[in-house]
Every structure is written in C-alpha cells, then in structure tokens.
Amino acid sequence: MQVKTQKDELENYLIDASNLAGGFSEKLFIPETNDEIAEILQEANARKIHVTVSGARTGTVGGAIPFGGWVISLEKFNRIKEINEDYAVVESGVILTDLQRAVEARNLFYPPDPTEWSCQIGGTIATNASGARSFKYGATRDYVRRLSIVLPNGDFLNLRRGEAFSNNGFVELATESGKTIRVKLPTYDAPNVRKNAAGYFAAERLDAIDLFVGSEGTLSVITEIELTLLEKPAGFLSGVVFFKDETDLLNFVDEARRISFETRKRNASILLANSSQQDAGVPTIDATVLEYFDENSLKFIKEKFPETPEDVRGAIFFEQETVEENEDGLFEQWNNLLEKHRAEIDDSWFTTSERDLIKMREFRHALPVAVNERVVKNRQRKIGTDMAVPDERFASFLKFYKQKLNESRLDYVIFGHIGDNHLHANILPKTDDEAQKAKHLYGRFIAQAIMLGGTISAEHGIGKLKSKYLYVQYGERYLNEMAELKRAFDPNGILGRGNMFDAKFFT
Ligand SMILES: Cc1cc2nc3c(=O)[nH]c(=O)nc-3n(C[C@H](O)[C@H](O)[C@H](O)COP(=O)(O)OP(=O)(O)OC[C@H]3O[C@@H](n4cnc5c(N)ncnc54)[C@H](O)[C@@H]3O)c2cc1C
C-alpha cells in the first residue's frame, strides 16, 4: 500500500469536477486489499480521524474532496475480474470507459452512462449515477446485483440483491465477523419524480443493498461489484432535431414519451404472457434517450459543431434501439411525429451508422465540457441545478427557470434529461457580483422545485455543496432519521464527513 503525505502528492486528491476550493488532507492511502482498507478505518476510528473515499473525482458536488483527515483512493482496485453472458464482476476502481470497452468487445451492453466515462465504477455506485440513457434503462442502482464493502469499523459485508429486505422499518445485516447490525430506516416518502439522488434511498420494502447505492461515501467503502449486463442492441436510430418554437418542442417530447411508455408497457405484458406475438421487428417508437438543449446551449456548442443551425429555439437528441427489419419503419414513425410537431426536419441530423452515432453522442458530451472550460476561463464557480419535478409540473418549472434567468441577465445554458423532467440550468457568472446573484437565484430554484413536489438533486447527489438544501427538502425530523441510520454503521461519523449532513449532525 502506498501512503503519501507530501503536498504535491496530495493536491490532485483535493479537487473534483465541482471546483469547490479549500480541500486539505494529512494523508493519502492507496490500498490494494480489503484488509488494508479495514486497517486504515480501524485506526481512523480509534483516533476519530475523518476519512474521505476518493474515486476518479468527476463528481460535481464535492463528495470526494476532503476537509481534513485522511483520503482512501481506490485507484489500485482496478481489475475487471469476470465478464459473463449477463453479468460482470469488477473492483470498484475500474474506470467506466474500460468496463464499457470490455463489455462491448463481448457484444454485451452496460447501460449506465453518466456522460463522463472517466469515473470509477465505485463512484457511480456511491452516487447512483444516471444520465441520458436512464430514460429507458434506469439508473446504476438497477444494475447492481452484489456489493462487497468495508464498513467504517473495518468489518466486511457482502450483499446480494434479493437476499435481505427491511421488516417493519428496520434492516438487519450480518457482517463477516459475525456481528449483526440493526438499522432503523428513515420514514420519509421519496418525492414523486422519475429520478432522485437526494438522501438515502427510501422504499416500503427496501432491499438492503439499496442503502449503499447512492450513499455518497458516507456508509462504507465499496470494493467489489457484480453488475447486470444486457445483450447489445443490434443498432440504434439517433437524431438531433431542431425546433423554431419551444411549445412545439415540448409537445413533441410529451408525445414521444407517452408513446415510449405505452410501447414498454405493451412489451412487458407480452413478455409476461410469454406470447408468441412478440416481434422485435414491429416498428414502434420507444426512445432510449430524450435530451434537451436550449437556444443558449446550441450557441455554445456551435463553436465545436459549426453545422448547428442558427435561429432555432432548441433541440432534442433522441435514440432508439433498432433491428434491421424495423429501421425504415421506425425512421418513418419518428419523421411523422417530428412533422406533426413542426420540427426543422431539413436542418436536423439522423443516423443509424455507428460512426455518426458516436459523433452525436460527442455533441451531447461537448456541452458540459464546453461549460466547464468557460467556468475555468471565468475563474468563477459554475452554479448548476440538478432538480427534477413531477411530470405535470415540468413545463411551468422550465418557464420559471427561463423567466428568472432572462431577468437576471446572467449567462446561462439549460440542457439535459428532458425525458425524465430533469434539466440542468448552468449559470456562468463572470464576476463576484454575478456569482452572488447566481447563488441567490439557485436558492429560488430550489424553493420552487420543492414547492412543486420535486427533488433538489435528481442525479448528482448532495455532497458538500448541497447539504443545507437537503435539510430544506426533508426538514429536521427526516435529517435526524438519516443521521441515525448513518450512526448505526458509523457511530463516530468518520466516513465521508461533510457529505449530505451539515456540521451540526456530526460534531
Ligand atoms: C462533464 C460531466 C458530466 C457529468 N454528467 C453526469 C450525468 O449525466 N449523470 C450523473 O449521474 N453524473 C454525471 N456526472 C458526475 C459524475 O461523473 C458522477 O458523479 C460519477 O459517478 C462519480 O464517479 P467518480 O469515480 O468520479 O467518483 P468521485 O467523484 O471520486 O466520488 C463521488 C462520491 O462517491 C464516493 N465514492 C467514490 N468511490 C467510492 C467507493 N468505492 N466507495 C464508497 N464511496 C465512494 C466519494 O466519497 C464521493 O462522495 C458528470 C460529471 C462531469 C464532469
């Protein structure tokens, strides 16, 4: 195991994609075995030293940034141990790109795609990463079959999905050393949104493994994961389609989403009935991805993609799985829907070729990257929202975003996962005054999302940046319940200090 204490050796571990400044740490550990992690945690517990778990630090809420204490980096846990027909076993430090390449080489498919593929699998589990494809395939949680973890006291736990469930509001877990941990679960209801990454997972019959998925480095160090793999889709039809009128764009999204859900429901019932009617060749709209770009985003991207048309109000990037027999039929259906909603079809881009598809995905990725570059240039922190609201509230929430942002005269882009009613408004202040104004506006958006029954974080999590807003979303009582849950695993509150909870909960 490597142990580092020199300033220059530690500096990369004090920052992540949030640009949150001020991180510091006394010591960095780069362990290679579970036993080494256990020893570090036992000593940290005995001396009440805070420990921050570090993945690839692509997180956007400062979760991996230490404010004192020690850092454990999982970078040496980088082995892909097994890839089978329908599952993979990986160590937590495996980089998503490496897993995706290995899976692809076996003609298989791992759906979670949090846009930024340089993250570690452990980081994606700890944040329950989702992204564009979650519209059809769900978030990382849906692919986690087994976890090996080291608890804050150095004990080991192996959890397999489907083996341990909550009972009357409690979960009981047997550790490898033979101890039983009894955990009281928080009693809040999750907001009625398609995606939620705010706080510990809640469900009436909770699978114990789900407590650790999305727990943001506060309950355990994840060391090994078994993940579900799917068959690789034969092909994809993709399009980036432009609109001159925002109402047309929103109506198009509504209808594409409604038809996609109907198709899925029908396919699920056919599958359940084990019916011979199932025919992958029947063309019916069923989007895997529905992504939005506002007018400002398109102007931003135009620098890298000059072919982006001018004088349009917004664009949608969609994808759908295809097989050879239904490609033409599907193209026709999408085309009809786009015509109905008055898309700028002649200026739009469509493809079924793998090469162009990669280009379209690059188009999607180019935006957050370009935004981050601008942030560095401006020397100000980006203020980015991650809220989602219930279906029926989405149009009014988008209107609220735009009205307030336009009034503010701040630079901004709005883009993201419109299929899940989940957009990112990124405000790009250029001066300290603008940064202040942007923070104020962010608070207004948080209040509005909560008032509409939404969540303050649909995918990036709470980390250190949003703990005060988690408090606003759930209130004192439920935050106390979450803190009680954490204490059941981590009585001294050493792990992931500052993530999710503000200082008063763990002093
Ligand atoms: C350009 C860009 C676009 C992005 N788009 C998306 C998106 O669309 N959807 C999305 O969900 N995310 C997105 N992200 C965020 C990011 O990629 C994810 O949060 C990622 O899952 C974090 O993985 P990581 O290895 O970088 O973790 P880190 O940033 O290192 O850590 C994140 C959190 O997980 C904890 N952690 C890390 N590894 C472990 C472990 N082994 N055990 C226990 N805890 C651990 C850390 O303590 C921290 O709290 C984006 C980021 C960037 C830079």
UniProtKB/TrEMBL annotation:
Its cofactor is FAD. PROSITE patterns: FAD_PCMH. The keyword Flavoprotein applies. Pfam families: FAD-oxidase_C, FAD_binding_4. Residues 21-232 form the FAD-binding PCMH-type domain. The keyword Oxidoreductase applies. Gene3D superfamilies: 3.30.465.10, 3.30.70.2740, Uridine Diphospho-n-acetylenolpyruvylglucosamine Reductase, domain 2, Vanillyl-alcohol Oxidase, Chain A, domain 4. Keywords: FAD, Flavoprotein, Oxidoreductase, Transit peptide. GO terms for molecular function: D-lactate dehydrogenase (cytochrome) activity; D-lactate dehydrogenase (NAD+) activity; FAD binding. Its EC number is 1.1.2.4. InterPro entries: FAD-bd_oxidored_4_C, FAD-bd_PCMH, FAD-bd_PCMH-like_sf, FAD-bd_PCMH_sub1, FAD-bd_PCMH_sub2, FAD-linked_Oxase-like_C, Oxid_FAD_bind_N, Vanillyl_alc_oxidase_C-sub2. One of its GO terms (biological process) is lactate catabolic process. Belongs to the FAD-binding oxidoreductase/transferase type 4 family. This is D-lactate dehydrogenase (cytochrome). It comes from uncultured Pyrinomonadaceae bacterium. The lineage of its organism: Bacteria, Pseudomonadati, Acidobacteriota, Blastocatellia, Blastocatellales.
